[in-house]
Amino acid sequence: METTHRVYAGDSRQLSSLEDESVELVVTSPPYPMIEMWDDLFSDLDPTVADALESGDGSRAFEAMHAQLDRVWDELERVLVDGGIACLNVGDATRSLDGSFRVYPNHARVLEAFESRGFDPLPDVLWRKPANSTAKFMGSGTVPPNAYVTLEHEYVLVFRKGSERREFEPRADRRYEAAFFWEERNQWFSDVWTEVRGELQAIEFDDDELRERSAAFPLEIPYRLICMYSAYGDTVFDPFWGTGTTTLAAMCAGRNSVGYELEETFLEVFAERVGTVPSLSRSVGRTRLERHREFVTERRESGKRLGYDADHYETPVVTKMERGIRLREVVDVDEIDDGYRLEHAPLSLE
């Protein structure tokens, strides 16, 4: 099985390299309006942002920043197939401007933007992202009433383009081989994720400034979302590519991918690290299988049954739909124009 992974250095407000309805899944984490590290970016895109911030008008700056993201959402509506899924990792912002402290609800503004474009909201996910500070409050400390809770969670907003679900041919191998284990379904499709940090290896970057500007989310998040909402053969798109976490997850999951990124340096750094993908994909697949075997042991010890045997692994599974699961690993990486071509093979267990 082959996959292709293309990355374009460009502005995702105009996806000129992507055709209409050419991707099945969007997984991304956009720059968050009203987070100070993104002020310069939004100000470069629209000078009125800088004017609003300088005058202390947070509401006007917030809306001007989201107006630039709206142009990306317009393009996503165009390139996503009918029934395709968009997953957006979004965090709210807290900020003091002109002596006033408040929260800026980015997730609510994005939800409104997608609904207005005809997307159906699906149940979302909260995942815990602890603050760097050991303090669990802001404001006046332990004296009421002027302290504020810290924001230690982010949202994964999930949308479907249109009201109709995607259809597949009956018993399509590319769908059933991409199935997830029963216990994975129970964990992944929970609306609160508390255990995503550090579970899967991520590419490391030596440049601290580059890492800070990337604001990369953990590899576990896009990997789960890709497994949850796409099948083998699908294409995953990230319009805010950053350090390439979504592409890395797509490579490990055996899906095609496309990315857009303004900062060409990120593309160069990723190119230096892509050689780690074969070992990483093998590690990810084996970790999933090992977790499943641990689940099997625990389930048997509790006296519960497992009703079926997996077709490709010497392990029982709970449901009939799990029998065809076939995990993949990358065995070869070639450079092509604007990206990479990968060869995948069934997961090696030796």
Outline the structure in words.
- This protein has 350 residues and is of the alpha/beta class.
- The chain has a single domain, classed as 3-Layer(aba) Sandwich (Rossmann fold).
- The protein is 34% helix and 26% strand.
- It has 11 helices and 16 strands.
- It has helices at residues 39-45, 47-54, 58-79, 106-116, 173-176, 182-188, 208-214, 220-229, 245-253, 264-273, 277-301, and strands at residues 2-9, 23-28, 80-90, 93-97, 100-104, 119-128, 137-138, 148-149, 153-161, 192-193, 235-238, 256-261, 308-309, 316-317, 328-336, 339-346.
- The strands form 4 sheets. A 10-stranded mixed beta sheet has the order 10-6-9-3-2-11-12-1-16-15, with helices on both faces. A two-stranded antiparallel sheet has the order 4-5.
- A hairpin with a 6-residue loop joins strand 13 (308-309) and strand 14 (316-317).
- Helix 1 crosses helix 2 (47-54), helix 2 (47-54) runs antiparallel to helix 3 and helix 8 packs across helix 9 (245-253).
- Keywords: DNA-binding, Methyltransferase, Restriction system, S-adenosyl-L-methionine, Transferase.
- One of its GO terms (biological process) is DNA restriction-modification system.
- Belongs to the N(4)/N(6)-methyltransferase family. N(4) subfamily.
- This is Type II methyltransferase.
- InterPro entries: DNA_methylase_N4/N6, MeTrfase_CN4_CS, RM_Methyltransferase, SAM-dependent_MTases_sf.
